[in-house]
Design a protein that fits this description.
about 70% helix, mainly alpha, 12 helices, about 260 residues
Length: about 260
């Protein structure tokens, strides 16, 4: 399975500079809405990770697993990676295009082929599991962009629901996990290794509900504020690669456990 690797050349740096002013306001609003900086994300996670909250999430994960059990034998090979990959590419394109929504039209025109390349990969993942994809979640206003996480969670496009209907509840959460990891990837790649704060809670929640072991997703939400940007970028790429391996292994395990 091939995931896009975003390589910034000198000609594309203008996109980052053009979006800088808008992103400053976005970061400020996201701080208020989701404690968007890394330290804030850790505080938010510690606040929500009470013993009772963890127990409720574990019970919900068991319910998702039970409702998904038995379907693996009838699904096409690579279905878990395809669901995650679909979310990853749609999330990446939505974050990237949305970050430039308030930019000059000429900048948006230059950025459009980049977003479209990710959407082309999304459509390929979708084709493998029989799902149609219209495009990224559009951000026509700054408020639309600030609410991107909430809009994915509420399934504004209906895509998560279609993934679940065509596959299983586990695949819905793999799709949403992919969307949030893809959004973070677009941010860290676009900023050349500067990630103001990963989406800790949604990544933890959907990884847990999808049955992904903690060791596979925790490196994606580690606090890397004191590390060089190049190290942050490299480690994020490695973390995504390791997550893909864990998701693939989960599919193998599910098939082995399914009665024939």
């Amino acid at each position: 399975m091939t995931f896009s690797s975003f390589r910034w050349s000198e000609s594309w740096r203008v996109l980052v500079y053009s979006a800088a002013a808008a992103l400053a306001f976005v970061a400020l609003e996201r701080l208020e809405l989701a404690l968007f900086d890394a330290a804030g994300a850790e505080r938010m996670l510690s606040l929500t990770r009470s013993k009772s909250a963890d127990e409720r999430l574990a019970a919900e994960a068991e319910d998702v697993s039970a409702r998904s059990r038995g379907a693996a034998a009838t699904l096409p090979a690579g279905h878990r990676l395809a669901a995650f990959g679909l979310g990853y590419e749609v999330g990446w394109a939505s974050e990237f295009a949305g970050s430039l929504a308030m930019s000059d039209p000429s900048v948006q025109a230059k950025a459009a082929p980049i977003a479209e390349a990710h959407l082309a990969l999304a459509r390929e993942h979708a084709r493998r599991i029989g799902i149609d994809v219209a495009g990224a979640l559009p951000s026509r206003t700054l408020t639309d962009f600030v609410r991107l996480q909430e809009r994915f969670e509420s399934d504004e496009s209906g895509l998560a629901g279609r993934v679940e209907a065509g596959l299983t509840p586990i695949h819905r959460h793999l799709f949403l996990l992919g969307a949030f990891v893809g959004m973070d990837a677009a941010l860290v790649q676009g900023n050349r290794g500067e990630l103001s704060g990963p989406q800790v809670e949604p990544i933890r929640r959907h990884a847990t509900l999808a049955g992904v072991p903690p060791a596979a997703w925790q490196p994606l939400v580690a606090d890397r504020r004191n590390e060089p940007a190049t190290v942050v970028l490299d480690r994020h790429r490695v973390a995504v690669k390791d997550l893909l391996a864990a998701i693939a292994a989960g599919e193998v395990d599910a098939r082995a456990a399914t009665p024939r």
